[in-house]
Design brief:
alpha/beta, 11 helices, 2 domains, 6-stranded parallel sheet, globular
Length: 349
């Protein structure tokens, strides 16, 4: 085993504490990555809040990582020591089911191995995430990080980015598409950037009128205040695609009514039960869909698209020692738009 340092859930305080971590020795197709930056995701917040120390499974969050290859196994062919790489929220899959064959490892029938809180398919250990100075991963689940992308601002692309890229790309969003993005947080601001770069007529739907300037800065052409009944009525049946990035439970009806005939509402923010009135789908032959992360081909394509369009996340960069502050502020929605941790402070004593 090899030893590194990271931020692990403390069962007594409900916070993360600096701790030594064990990583596996490299298997033939593994690379060791010095983690330089790791994004902070709502999933991390939920994982820490729900962590049960009595379960005996350690928790080290983090699944939006960028860094540099420091070592490689003898069978590795895609990377060399010194290469800039990115690691997302999936680090393995069965590789045999129809979903894996289709390049949708995120939907693996045997369930993908998650970057943290997952079960290693070889030794049964619990995977520990990217809030650490080193990560060991199969080369097939790491991605070349284009030189054009700032590694800190690129980190959130590996979860927030691919989560909204997947529906936009799959639904064929392009110059003749009218897109609305509900919510302007970590997911939403990237959805706006992607939709604009794809050439779509892009609008933002938000409860907060004061976010109109931010929406325009991101390239949005329109802005709809969801708490204004007149504006919502005026926008009825307007959009071919609505990307709903709202992370809390909410009524989908008002957003479905904004979808044009034969259009789609893709709900990617809230993970949990939803209630839908059939009439909101029936009138206009509207479709309700979702997406979960992305497979390897889609993730690689997204990174190349971002490099081509100089597209990264809007971030606030914090030293990793401020991780508990970041999680607390994220809980209070005190971030615009994504926190990223600088892991270099884990190199010292």
């Amino acid at each position: 085993m090899r030893t590194t340092t990271g931020w692990q859930a403390d069962g007594t305080t409900g916070e993360l504490r600096r701790a030594p971590l064990e990583r596996r020795d490299l298997r033939p197709d593994d690379i060791a990555v010095r983690v330089d930056y790791c994004g902070v995701c709502h999933t991390d917040l939920r994982a820490v809040a729900g962590h049960d120390p009595e379960a005996g499974r350690p928790l080290v969050p983090g699944h939006e990582c960028t860094g540099v290859v420091t070592e490689k196994g003898p069978a590795v062919t895609r990377f060399s020591v010194g290469d800039a790489v990115a690691v997302g929220n999936i680090v393995d899959s069965c590789g045999e089911c129809p979903m894996c064959d289709a390049g949708q490892e995120n939907f693996c029938h045997a369930f993908p191995t998650l970057t943290y809180g997952g079960v290693d398919r070889h030794d049964g250990s619990t995977t520990l995430g990217g809030y650490s100075r080193e990560y060991v991963v199969r080369e097939g689940f790491a991605y070349p990080l284009p030189a054009a992308l700032d590694p800190a601002a690129a980190a959130p692309l590996l979860c927030a980015g691919v989560t909204v890229w997947e529906p936009l790309h799959t639904l064929g969003v392009g110059p003749r598409t009218r897109v609305a993005v509900a919510g302007l947080g970590g997911l939403g601001h990237l959805a706006v950037k992607f939709a604009v770069a794809l050439g779509a007529d892009t609008s933002v739907i938000s409860r907060s009128p004061d976010k109109a300037d931010d929406a325009r800065r991101l390239g949005a052409h329109g802005f709809v205040v969801s708490t204004d009944p007149d504006r919502m009525t005026a926008a009825r049946d307007r959009f071919d695609v609505v990307i709903d990035t709202i992370s809390v439970p909410h009524d989908l009806g008002p957003y479905l009514r904004l979808v044009a005939m034969d259009g789609t509402l893709s709900q990617v923010g809230h993970i949990g039960p939803v209630t839908v009135e059939t009439m909101d789908l029936l009138v206009g032959r509207k479709k309700l869909s979702s997406a979960g992360s992305g497979g390897r081909p889609a993730t690689a394509a997204m990174l190349e698209f971002c490099a081509e369009h100089a597209l990264t996340a809007d971030i606030e960069l914090l030293a990793s020692a401020r991780v508990n502050e970041a999680l607390d502020r994220l809980h209070r929605n005190d971030v615009r738009h994504r926190f990223v941790l600088d892991m270099s402070d884990l190199s010292g004593p």
